[in-house]
## 1
Amino acid sequence: MRYNQHQFAVLIGCVGLSTAACIRPPEPAPLDVQDQSRFRALSIQNLREAAFCDDPVLRMQAMEAIQEVASADAASCIADNIDNGYAGVSFAALMALGDMRRATADGSARLAVANQNRLLQRVRTLAEDRDPNVRIAALYALHAMGDATRTRELADFLLRNTDARVRANAALAIGRLRDPTSIQLLHQGLKREKKDAVKMQILEALASLGDSHGIERLKFYGFSAVPDQAALALMCLANARTIEAEEMFRIRLRDTDYPEIRLQAARGLGRLGFEEGLDTAVRDLFFNRPRRNIANDPPQQQIARVRALAALALEAIDNPTSLGPLWSAFNEPDQSPYVRLAISRAALRLIDGHKSDAARPTGHESHRAPANRVAGTGVED
């Protein structure tokens, strides 16, 4: 099983990153007001440029990043991308549109779209798109915009579509609806599903709804001897902000040599309000010790993937002292655009003080921890 471009694009990393000399990470330290202002401006500029670049995967990641952390002027990029010609980008933009409309009362203001009726009509048109993944995201966005007349069609995509990517994306959308009555449907899909990666997405949806079976299954996979599977399970639990996974996150932060696993654990703890993964994430933001001779995973890709995950972990941990290392990493001349994008969203989270709860509908309320106790489809088989 491999991470894919759609839901897990940030884990892919990228090619073209030069392997630099060994880097000593800077000590965690806040930035002064002037540097924060400059960092914020450059981060917003970076998100905007990524939202309209020629790389579809980078654009997809930009859609999620903008929805999560960007201000109103940058958020308009989401509406501009819902029907752009790239199915993956349209999917990401429509899901981001739905998340934004569902998450906050001022979602419409953040979108800065003058004619909401026109936007609604564009989304309805995309619900007829030839690509089923685009249709799924459009149905989710329509539901978030107040039109639930076709939401039940998501069940058909989950249970009857022959494409594993489509089934996984349907599970993603159903989970984000946050409707407890969907649990039975998700269990039905899980029972008949044969593809492991689709099962993981269904389990994440169940965990986000507080379903104990989904949570326990993901915790089991989180200790898998297969590193990719363990990292994916940890990511799903972190996305769902599952308080029941707290102990497992702590164990996996310390007991593994795989940076992807420890960073997903650090991110999971951060989303629960704990900062134990801060030093680990700062160190791995400058990761430069890839495993050699790994089939289909060249060193440059590993470096970019780990650094991007480190930035996402720092975003979740939400400690302002990580701004110093993030600023240093952002300014590295050969930094991957994927890493720089992840750094930008982390910086905006830390500088603007946004909280995950206000940005994206993920976990079930009864399974969320307090905000901060100490101071995150398609598949490819």
Note: The chain is about 60% helix and 0% strand.
## 2
Amino acid sequence: MAFNASCKFLLDTRHVHFDTTSVNVWGEYEQSASDSDTLHITYGYSKDHRPDLKQFLIKMLCVGRNIPILGRCEDGNASDKSINNAVLSRISKHMAKYGLQPGAFVYIADSAIVTRDNLEMIGDNLFLTRLPFSYNEAGRVVSEAVAENNWEKIGTLNETPTTAKRPPAIYSVAEKTVTLYQQPYRALVIHSTAHDKRRLKRIGREIKASETTLTKLIAQETKQEFYCRPDAESSASCLNESDTELHSIAASVEEKVHYTRGRPPKNRPQKVAYIRYIIKAKIQEKTEQIERKRKEAGCFVLLTNIPRQGDMAETGAELLQAYKEQNGIERNFSFLKDPLIVNDLFLKKPERIEALGAVLLMALMIWNLIEHTLRLHIKESGGTLPGWDNKQTRRPTTFMMSTKFLGIQIVRIAGICRLAETLTDTQQQYMAALGLSETDLLRCRQSAPGKIPRE
């Protein structure tokens, strides 16, 4: 079915996107050892943050950004790393059905693919993923790129309208090389003005911790009084050297005069009892280091073996655009979990859940092919379609299209089908964009013997 769709709709199979998601279920779903071949519904890592519920996984391989060509249900406790490995072991054979040999397509997945076994399993296939910061190489190339400050500007890649509160992210790229498991790979350090909020919070905690450490040290040293200036200057010098990565201390020595008790004589200065020396200090931010840290927070690393030259070569901007299209699968998962599409699952048998998963994947493919056809029509014609509130749009969706056909009635009289009312101009525009006509709507099956619908 997917192969026929790819041929009929001329889908771009150069980039294939892979990801998984978890689907929660209600119930125990007890299984015996004899049920080892059936879908195992159990507890696992919940991507919906519901560890109290059992689950199963859905894996999906998409082309044309978000059109599934391969997918199935997996056990609820399966890991993304092992699922990636299983897909990689068969992807060459599967893509050969589409006339694509190893090296003729790019496998795009999340960072779960970055393991020794998976990188070895890739073989001659090309891949693109995100290098997690759990690898030291990621931090190294980011630090180098920020220090060198030799960025190639990409600009904005947003497709949806932006607002003043949500400005578009501006991207820059720096090319590097990393070595993982004794193999060199191409690494793209991407800087975005839309900083990673989690990393910014972590940097904020580091700044606060650094300042707290020096504050305690200053409090301990400044409460002392020294009998001679050399001792005070020696202590101040040590304090000046006790800086951190993000802060420094500026310490100096001052005299503290102690006077004798009692009121001083009239018209004469108060008598000095003795002089001590104290330290005055303040904390100063290392502006360059803090700014570098914040800039690093806006960076991530793309890992690939796609060549810089040749038939399959892609630039940094092209690779970033390809990786950002991974969010097409995320939208697919939102579709599968939308209660308007399918509510909570209460099927009793795992076999039925697995069958429902296959039906949903087929429905998703058809849903996305409709959107693909609408947008391709707009791209080729240069026109627009009526969107929400009849405002013209260049990004129609299948859901948007479906709302335009609510209330259509087809009546059948003596075996002949006809529309109860003429199609509106908006409906005709969508029909034309889909390459359909009224005749396609009026393809009625032969009615069974019985009552003929009223006109």
Note: The chain has 13 helices and 15 strands.
